């Protein structure tokens, strides 16, 4: 699982507070919004702070939108954002959650699929997707392509950035990581320093890099079929050196 280490990246309220300042609306959300525009119901697995699910409910007027995430601190932010009152937020694990309903669209964005570190966990998430897809419904998720390279940051300064946090003011943010080619797991720590107070917050997580061929086999075994493989969130096709591995598919 992702949430291991001295302090977990998503579970702690002080760290969840930084998530939206670092992770901005991007092409992944645009792509999912376009898919959601054709749907009547949407399930967002690993919804985090709920920016996408809330926008789907708020701007597309879709009545049945559900977001699932195990991190209560992330869901607390989700509930309070505009449109958050129109989404059913479930504190749950994408490997095991069973909602007893099916959806037109199931999404996992922000590389949530990579938090599942073992084939068993990955198969469990794919089973959850299959269990919640309507006939004719679609799924989409992203996983970074290992062939595109893994960037390791050995020191705080390797990836230091300054950002302006809406509540906390100027913040220094960094990311330190190391990749184990044997397990294909990247362990990383995100840290933040609030300039005005000097206070530091940091937490760690792990992500796995799964090759496209292995993903394709697991997807088939889960009773799903891929209609197209994208290589980025702008809709470009997957190729061996693509940035992303993004299957778009449905029930077999
Ligand atoms: C990088 S964030 C992505 C959040 C959101 N989808 C986005 O695009 O901004 C990863 C999310 O995966 C969630 N996560 C970790 N383990 C999970 C699990 N077992 N089931 C579902 N979500 C999980 C974390 O709590 C976190 O909110």
UniProtKB/TrEMBL annotation:
Molecular function as annotated in GO: methyltransferase activity
InterPro entries hit by this protein: Methyltransf_25 (IPR041698), SAM-dependent_MTases_sf (IPR029063)
Alphabetized Pfam families for the sequence: Methyltransf_25 (PF13649)
Database matches in Gene3D superfamilies: CAC2371-like domains (2.20.130.10), Vaccinia Virus protein VP39 (3.40.50.150)
Keyword presence, ATP-binding: no
Keyword check for Transferase: yes
UniProt entry keywords in alphabetical sequence: Methyltransferase, Transferase
Protein name stated in the entry: Class I SAM-dependent methyltransferase
